[in-house]
Amino acid sequence: MGLVTASGGNYGLSYLSGSKQWRIEIAIQFAHAILLMIAGISNPESPRHLARLGNHTAARTSLGRLRGLAADSPELDEAIAEVHIWLLEDAEQQQKARFRECFEGPNLRRLVLGCSMGFHAESTGIVFFLSYSTTFLAGAGITNAYLITFIIGLVMSASTLPSIYCLDHLGRRSCAFIGGTMMLIVCIVTGAIHSAVPLSAASQHALIAGSLLFIFAYASSWGSLAWLVITEAYSSRLRTYQSTISMCFYWISQWIFGFITPYMVDESAGNLGVNMMYVLAGFTVLSLAWAYFYLPELSGLTQAEMDRMFDEGIAAWKSKAWKREQKMAVEAINRTGSLHEIVTVVDKGN
Q1: For a designed S-S bond to 97, which of 54, 106, 190, 237 qualifies (C-beta 3.0 to 4.6 A apart)?
Q2: What is the pTM assigned to this prediction?
Q3: Per residue in 150-198, pLDDT tens?
Q4: How many helices (H) and strands (E) does the chain have?
């Protein structure tokens, strides 16, 4: 929604002239910052953080406020007990964890997975479309570039919702392949139309449609997939270390592509223009190849199953079959247990 608000504000301010455009935009940013500051001050502190510091009274008060529970309610007693149990388990895990373990054995594969996931999610072209779409579209001869950018923001926000279902029911790998293939086709077709009839009405319409389709494909697949993999791919012992490193690499990747994109598109430098779509197609091919060889199927796995998959060194392209075998084995065990219980009950009845 932040993207929609920003692009919508830019669209509205585009009708003004002079310094009013950027002055009002900065004032709106100040307003958002003030609201965040007020919310941060007024919100209660994390009960887990307070309990970790030994301030158990404040932790209880904060938890009761967050959950709307009375200070003497049994539900609050149970909730604060869960916090203390979590602290004991977390302290035990953190005591065993060492930073160097992030770069050893199966943990290194997990770390590389998280870091490369962020890199490939950014390399497909999302920075280009979200950060430079207005300038790019205007340079391609489209007169209502601010409006199109606003619509791109709306499509980005709305298209994120289907990913909630798709990533769990279709799986991580399937979403990566389907979304990546759609992005690849869009980039090639849009670039080809521009090459055939540059700066024509057909080329402009294809660029607008291609931008919206690309955003839809990305937001419903790779956009959400990146955040999931960066947070879920690690063991519970090293999750704090490895997710932090992966997020750092994600933002560095975003900065890299945000920095080089203007030089590739601008007339005074690379002057690629709409031919940039071919470059994005090339990056998308690399991302699809990476997904095939390095992105395992993680949906529906418990933490123990995920640990076992990495410890056994299951190849990414075999992970879906491995997951299916694990689920079948669990179901077989459950059926055997149920039959055993039935036989036991029948024997007792006889």
Answers
A1: 237
A2: 0.80
A3: 888 899 989 999 998 899 889 999 999 999 999 999 999 999 998 888 8
A4: 15, 0
Identify whether the C-beta of residue 257 lies closer than 8 Å to the C-beta of residue 122. yes
pLDDT (tens digit per residue) in 74-130:
888 888 888 888 788 777 666 677 889 999 999 999 999 999 999 999 999 898 888
Q: What separation in angstroms does the CA of 95 have from each of 50, 105, 201, 238, 304? A: 19, 19, 64, 11, 20
- Output the CA–CA distances (angstroms, integers) from residue 101 to 93, 97, 106, in the order listed: 13, 7, 9
Q: How far is CA 162 from CA 65, 67, 288, in A?
A: 33, 30, 21
Give the pair of three-digit tokens for residue 250: 């994600």
The tokens of 346 are what?
A: 């029948």
Both 341 and 307 in one domain: the answer is yes
Count up the domains in the chain and report the number: 2
Instruction: Give the residue numbers spanning the domain of 209.
Output: 105-349
